[in-house]
Amino acid sequence: MPRPHCPRCSRPLDHCLCALIPLLPSATRVLILQHPSELKHALNTARLAALGLSNAELRVGEEFEDLSALLAQPGYRACLLFPGEDTQPLQQFAAQAVDQPVLLVVPDGTWRKARKLLHLNPLLAALPRVALPEGLQSRYRVRKAPMSGALSTVEAVVSALNILEAPAQFDALLKPFEALIEGQIKAMGEDTFQRNHLPR
């Protein structure tokens, strides 16, 4: 018999994270486009980010037929948070839009799946592309980063909002994420974690 799951955070009821999820306001609107392969992932940090922000939306799919309407938010200036050629630092983009809130579009998936989202949705590829500062370290201790500076989706959203809305801080969004990681470490056992996930 399958374990009952929380309908809100999708975690097993005995590991529900809802009590730790804040509800933070932001001038920035966050649109997370999640590849379907991430939906059932045990560490679905995009959901945590969307639940913890009052001005955020999570959409799941590969092709988004209503993307034009999603991007045409009145009063917002849209950008895509994704590394690659022709990116500009997020701080620089924010400085150009001081009187206009940002619509931050965040693809969620493996690098390959995220690139596929861009390929299938040309409107995304046409957006100004922004990047976080170099040197950020992920707290995602149970998953090896594919490259230096790679962050989970919730970490990337928090880092971006801390830049866009400074001096406001959004680190409270990381509380359920930290609890999720601690739960994973506990489930695998400290010895396994030490052996497989700590740097040598």
Short structural description:
Helix content is 34%, strand content 14%. It has helices spanning 45-52, 67-71, 90-95, 111-120, 122-125, 153-164, 174-188, 190-197, and strands at 29-34, 56-60, 77-81, 87-89, 102-108, 129-131.
Outline the structure in words:
Helix 1 (45-52) runs parallel beside helix 6. The longest helix is centred in the C-terminal third of the chain and has 15 residues, at 174-188. The relative contact order is 0.18. The chain has helices at 45-52, 67-71, 90-95, 111-120, 122-125, 153-164, 174-188, 190-197; strands at residues 29-34, 56-60, 77-81, 87-89, 102-108, 129-131. By secondary structure, it is an alpha/beta fold. The protein has a six-stranded parallel sheet. 34% of the residues lie in helices and 14% in strands. The protein has one domain: Alpha/beta knot. It has eight helices and six strands, in the order E-H-E-H-E-E-H-E-H-H-E-H-H-H. Mean pLDDT is 86; it is low at 195-200. GO terms for molecular function: tRNA-uridine aminocarboxypropyltransferase activity. Residues 2-189 form the DTW domain. Keywords: S-adenosyl-L-methionine, Transferase, tRNA processing.
The SS-based structural class is: alpha/beta
Instruction: Determine the number of helices (DSSP H or I, runs of at least 4 residues).
Output: 8
- Note the run of SSEs as H and E: EHEHEEHEHHEHHH
CATH topology: Alpha/beta knot
Q: Outline, from the CA principal axes? A: globular
Instruction: Write out the strand line-up for the largest beta sheet, numbering strands in chain order.
Output: 2-1-5-3-6-4
Arithmetic mean pLDDT: 86
* Distance from first to last alpha carbon: 40 Å
Number of domains: 1
Q: Give a short account of the largest sheet.
A: 6 strands, parallel
Question: Strand percentage, roughly?
Answer: 5-15%
**CATH architectural group:** 3-Layer(aba) Sandwich
Instruction: Detail the poorly predicted runs.
Output: 195-200
The proportion of residues forming helix, as a percent range, comes to 25-40%
- Based on CA atoms alone, the radius of gyration comes out at 17 Å
For this structure, what is the CATH class? Alpha Beta
